[in-house]
Design goal:
By secondary structure, this protein is mostly beta strands. The protein is built from 1 helix and 8 strands. The protein has a single domain, classed as Immunoglobulin-like (Sandwich), CATH 2.60.40. Strands 3, 4, 5, 7 and 8 form a 5-stranded antiparallel beta sheet that branches.
Length: 151
């Protein structure tokens, strides 16, 4: 069997399959936090925030601020550039019943133009809100966006 036929039969499908399997990563903010509901008293503490790259399958559902489902745990972030808030991300929500020491959630970006620039300060806010949208518990954390991403 000559080499061209061997290439077409064995190697070409492997190369094409590996190209199809590769999935581009999307920028996001990874938030690890603790939440407990103890007899109606919510305890909430952000443990870690950092840039992350996730697959489209891992991307959270994004809610505009005026359409946030209540009750829920709501996560969102501001880009803090030069002492001014530049944008707010859409909200990411988890069921209010979500409890644990190391809950991981991702905050996504609706538009590539809103992805922070390397060196930007990011203010992350996590809140627990009741069915009327009243905040029952809240925590915030700052970090520096230390990665570069291009669409």
């Amino acid at each position: 069997m000559n080499r061209t036929i061997l290439f077409i039969i064995i190697i070409l499908p492997v190369v094409l399959a590996s190209g199809c399997i590769h999935e581009s990563k999307l920028p996001a903010i990874k938030v690890v936090f603790m939440h407990y509901d103890i007899k109606g008293h919510h305890i909430l503490k952000i443990k870690k925030v950092e840039p992350a790259f996730i697959t489209k399958k891992e991307a959270p559902t994004l809610y505009p601020w005026y359409n946030t489902p209540f009750p829920s745990i709501i996560l969102f972030a501001y880009d803090w550039r030069g002492g001014k808030l530049q944008f707010v991300t859409p909200s990411t929500c988890l069921p209010i019943e979500t409890e644990g020491d190391n809950i991981t959630a991702y905050i996504g970006f609706k538009d590539p133009r809103h992805v922070p620039k390397k060196g930007d300060g990011i203010l992350v806010i996590v809140q627990v809100a009741d069915k009327r949208g009243r905040v029952l518990a809240s925590d915030e954390a700052m970090f520096v966006w230390n990665v570069t991403w291009k669409p």
